[in-house]
């Protein structure tokens, strides 16, 4: 795909919420593959909609429907197939009977859809478009689980006419995992069996803990913590913290995509929870939280011992939950925490550098980060990068209003009320997206809109106020710099 095509594709995904609801064109614009293995066929689970679909996609310039079906199947499932005869078509899409080019392996243990996982992490678009590829009986797929439920009846008819292919069931995939990682995968399988042997009330308790895990790793929560930090630190340190956090998250995401090491739940049919994490190393959530916990320890200098134990307990709890969720290997989680420690040391060094230029050219710094996100998105069109681009663009716009400050030093008493209001609205939007939106492009646009809406809501509530209204107080930069100077001379 050329650079020009990537740019057009990126802009189309980001800003096509209106056109996504338009009527279908008369000509064929997409192709799909139906791959049958006895009484099962290949399905994928989309990241954006969190719904089940089949390998399909739109035609590129000069591409035939058969080539599109072959390309999309490989990108979403990692399977090399040969499209054979046409099984049917809708107004825009041709459905082909596709035959695998070689032997296909599937996990013998069943997943949440009573299907069998494929080697999803081998697919080029794993973690970009799909988080799961599997074979399942189409008659067991519930309409609410499928992205286009109206297709299910005639999809089953086409499936009955597709050619049968051979499938090999294996107890586990042969990978280069270490002994410790194998132990963790086996532990997750045993944990899953124990989970389903629990009473209904106990299962609800476990689900509540896992929901808490997702809330702890929410981007909205991370942003609100940055806002909260500005209650204890001055504008200059708050701005440094914002720029530093965004940069580190971009670098962690780049490292994550470069290593391409999948999370434990893809190696096993672990389905106690529907995780949103597809790569184990590094865990961006653990990098952020280890960095924040160490930083908070410095903010509360007088109660350091108490806060240190509290931060350690919080970090250990988060670590335990993401491991039990099947999102991160234990060793990868420890490495992620160490990366957060290195990030913390880097931030300490940066605090001692004069940031006058940063303070005077905040919009330029945010614009550089925005362009960097755009360049990364050309190669990895991730929803995370799209969301980050919209957040940065919104912050640039907000900085033009009022005093031009993104963060004030002290906020009013409505902070905690607004904090829970934003989290509640974010949860409500998640429910709405899950049950009422099935169109992929609309889902992308709406998913990205939640973050600027939250920022504008916070700004509207006058949470970013000028520190001059609150009198003279010891700034966070003074607290941190004094602490680091004391540490330096004590070591001398």
Automatic annotation (TrEMBL):
SUPFAM superfamilies: Nudix. The chain crosses the membrane at residues 204-229, 241-259, 279-299, 306-323, 329-347, 362-380, 386-403, 415-436, 442-459. This is Nudix hydrolase domain-containing protein. The keyword Ribonucleoprotein does not apply. Gene3D superfamilies: Nucleoside Triphosphate Pyrophosphohydrolase. Coiled coil: none annotated. Its cofactor is Mg(2+). GO terms for molecular function: hydrolase activity. InterPro entries: NUDIX_hydrolase-like_dom_sf (IPR015797), NUDIX_hydrolase_CS (IPR020084), NUDIX_hydrolase_dom (IPR000086). CDD domains: NUDIX_Hydrolase (cd02883). Residues 31-97 form the Nudix hydrolase domain. It comes from Vibrio caribbeanicus ATCC BAA-2122. It holds the Pfam family NUDIX. Keywords: Hydrolase, Membrane, Transmembrane, Transmembrane helix.
């Amino acid at each position: 795909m050329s650079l020009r095509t990537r740019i057009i594709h990126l802009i189309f995904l980001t800003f096509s919420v209106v056109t996504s609801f338009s009527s279908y064109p008369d000509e064929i614009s997409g192709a799909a593959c139906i791959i049958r293995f006895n009484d099962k066929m290949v399905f994928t689970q989309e990241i954006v909609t969190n719904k089940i679909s089949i390998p399909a996609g739109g035609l590129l310039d000069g591409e035939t429907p058969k080539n599109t079906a072959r390309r999309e199947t490989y990108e979403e499932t990692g399977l090399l197939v040969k499209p054979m005869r046409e099984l049917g078509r809708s107004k825009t899409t041709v459905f082909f009977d596709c035959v695998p080019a070689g032997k296909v392996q599937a996990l013998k243990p069943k997943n949440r859809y009573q299907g069998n996982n494929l080697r999803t992490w081998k697919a080029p678009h794993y973690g970009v478009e799909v988080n799961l590829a599997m074979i399942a009986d189409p008659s067991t797929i519930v309409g609410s689980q499928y992205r286009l439920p109206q297709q299910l009846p005639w999809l089953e008819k086409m499936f009955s006419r597709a050619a049968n292919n051979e499938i090999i069931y294996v107890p586990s995939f042969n990978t280069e995992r270490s002994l410790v990682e194998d132990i963790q995968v086996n532990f997750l399988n045993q944990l899953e069996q124990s989970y389903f042997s629990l009473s209904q009330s106990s299962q609800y308790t476990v689900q509540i803990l896992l929901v808490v895990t997702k809330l702890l790793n929410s981007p909205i929560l991370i942003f609100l913590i940055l806002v909260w930090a500005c209650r204890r630190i001055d504008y200059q340190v708050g701005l440094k913290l914002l720029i530093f956090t965004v940069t580190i998250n971009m670098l962690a995401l780049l490292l994550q995509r470069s290593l391409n090491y999948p999370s434990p739940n893809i190696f096993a049919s672990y389905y106690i929870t529907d995780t949103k994490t597809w790569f184990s190393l590094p865990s961006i959530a653990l990098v952020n939280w280890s960095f924040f916990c160490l930083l908070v320890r410095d903010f509360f200098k007088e109660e350091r011992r108490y806060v240190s134990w509290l931060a350690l307990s919080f970090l250990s709890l988060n670590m335990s939950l993401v491991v039990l969720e099947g999102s991160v290997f234990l060793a990868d989680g420890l490495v992620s925490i160490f990366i957060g420690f290195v990030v913390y040391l880097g931030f300490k060094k940066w605090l001692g550098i004069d940031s006058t230029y940063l303070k005077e050219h905040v919009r330029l710094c945010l614009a550089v980060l925005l362009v960097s996100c755009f360049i990364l998105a050309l190669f990895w069109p991730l929803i995370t990068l799209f969301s980050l681009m919209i957040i940065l663009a919104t912050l640039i716009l907000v900085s033009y209003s009022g005093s031009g400050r993104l963060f004030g030093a002290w906020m009013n008493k409505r902070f905690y009320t607004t904090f829970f209001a934003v989290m509640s609205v974010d949860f409500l939007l998640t429910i709405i997206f899950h049950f009422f939106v099935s169109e992929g492009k609309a889902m992308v646009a709406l998913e990205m809109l939640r973050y600027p809406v939250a920022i504008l809501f916070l700004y509207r509530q006058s949470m970013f106020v000028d520190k001059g209204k609150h009198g003279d107080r010891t700034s966070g930069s003074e607290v941190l710099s004094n602490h680091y100077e004391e540490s330096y001379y004590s070591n001398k």
